[in-house]
Amino acid sequence: MIGTLYGVGLGPGDPELMTLKAHRLIAAAPVIAYPAATGVPSFAREIAAQAIGAGTEEIPMEMPMRTDRFPAIEVYDRAAKIIASHLVEGKDVVVLCEGDPFLFGSFMYLYERLAADFPCEVVPGVSSVPACAAALGRPLAARNDVLTIVPGPLENARIRPLIEAAEAVAIMKVGRHLPRLKALLAEMDLLHTAGYVERASLPNMRVMPLADLKAEKAPYFSVILIYKGEEPWQLPRQS
Questions:
Q1: What is the pLDDT of residue 70?
Q2: What dihedral angle (degrees, nearest 10) is formed by the CA atoms of 162, 168, 172, 177?
Q3: Burial, 115: exposed, middle or buried (Cβ in 10 Å; 0-12, 13-18, 19+)?
Q4: What is the DSSP letter of 178?
Q5: Can you give the pTM of this predicted structure?
Q6: Beta-carbon neighbour count of residue 137 at 10 Å?
Q7: DSSP of 121-165, one letter per residue?
Q8: DSSP letter string over 14-40?
């Protein structure tokens, strides 16, 4: 017998947005693994904390806060070896993943290293994109609208045509790129239709039209939602 690897989506942050299946698997897991920025408590573990059993063995995957891929590759290689050692002993391992495991989720890098050799199940989670739309009070897309998800770190030359081709756009990973993205949307005459949400579903969540945001930087967990389609949806005035 060998163990099963579970990639479990936790949702955007509110523990109540975890699925029943995610909660059940975490509570029963003999081993859990989760990403954690070096020197910072793991957000994924914080979301799942109430479901983690007292005797659960934990594997923190510490990620250096750098833009290049090589340190992260080394972290995933090392974590995959540790996780594999538990799986061959017949222990199931649950990997905690903020949001959804396969939408910019860290679990996908463990999946590509381990799924060929071990049973693996992916448990989807509530993505931050619909969570932000719910917080903003404006639907994402309707009818035949094209919804495009754009990573904020991309250069403007790549982002502009993506926005131009879509009726609805979600820009994720806004963070330090906020001033540049805001200026781009102003150039495209889209600032008036852009909504801004940071830390969706958490107690310190902020929600407002992007044009009302005065800050020069945003947290990593922030999203800009743009709607250009034919529906008469308006941005609510929130703060």
A1: 45
A2: 60
A3: middle
A4: H
A5: 0.91
A6: 13
A7: EEE----HHHHHHHHHTS-S--TTPPEEEEETTS-HHHHHHHHHH
A8: -GGGS-HHHHHHHHH-SEEEEEEETTS
Q: Which of 203, 217, 218, 171 is nearest to 190 (CA)?
A: 171
Q: What is the pLDDT of residues 93-134, one digit of tens each?
A: 999 999 999 999 989 999 999 999 999 999 999 999 999 999
Per-residue pLDDT, 230:
87
Burial class (CB in 10 A: 0-12, 13-18, 19+), 98: buried
Amino acid, res. 204: N
Residues of the chain with pLDDT under 50: 67-70, 239
CB 221 within 8 A of CB 128: yes
Longest dimension (CA), the chain: 59
